[in-house]
Design brief:
Elements: E1 2-7, H1 16-29, E2 33-38, H2 54-65, E3 68-74, H3 82-88, E4 99-105, H4 112-124, E5 128-135, H5 144-165
Parallel strand pairs: 1-2, 1-3, 3-4, 4-5
Length: 169
């Protein structure tokens, strides 16, 4: 299975980057081909679809290659970042029935507002939300190994769900 892990924040000092690394490394340990899509690599200031922009075309290629997505996102005022919204809104048909999992990140006990918003957005874009888990109190984790001790079982379960629904190429 080929999974694209979308890191949904470009904020300086982002703790979600460590979580995205944990997700990618954990998926790879499970024998899954996992690559990162970082919103920082797509500095878009529009949401027009199909206008031939090089960044949009690069993102389109990544999504078309994917058999599933995992979106790693912190909570921004009970929602997701603007840069994630801009990136996701550049495509539509390419998402048809694409399974998507979510890993929400919070410095406290949050992450469920963004989960609700992401589920709704991805469903509206034609994706198939299949599972999630929350990394709360993210500041307590200093390494991928720390995250693995706490969340390996959740990642395995998410990977199983993604695999069950993966669009096979």
């Amino acid at each position: 299975m080929k999974v694209k892990v979308v890191l949904g924040t470009g904020r300086d000092g982002r703790k979600s980057e460590l979580v995205a690394r944990f997700v990618m490394e954990g998926l790879r340990e499970l024998g899954i081909d996992a690559d990162l899509i970082d919103v920082r690599d797509y500095p878009l200031c529009f949401t027009r679809r199909g206008d031939g922009d090089a960044l949009v075309e690069r993102f389109r290629k990544e999504v078309i290659e994917a058999e599933a997505l995992v979106i790693v996102s912190p909570e921004y005022n009970r929602s997701y970042s603007g840069e994630l919204k801009m990136l996701l809104d550049t495509l539509y048909e390419e998402y048809a029935e694409l399974p998507v999992g979510f890993v929400t990140v919070s410095a406290g006990w949050g992450g469920f507002g963004v989960l609700s918003e992401l589920r709704q957005l991805c469903s509206n874009l034609g994706m198939l939300p299949v599972g999630h888990f929350a990394v709360q109190n993210v500041n307590q984790f200093a390494s991928v190994e720390d995250l693995s001790k706490a969340h390996a079982a959740s990642l395995r379960e998410l990977a199983q769900r993604l695999n069950r629904y993966a669009r096979k190429r």
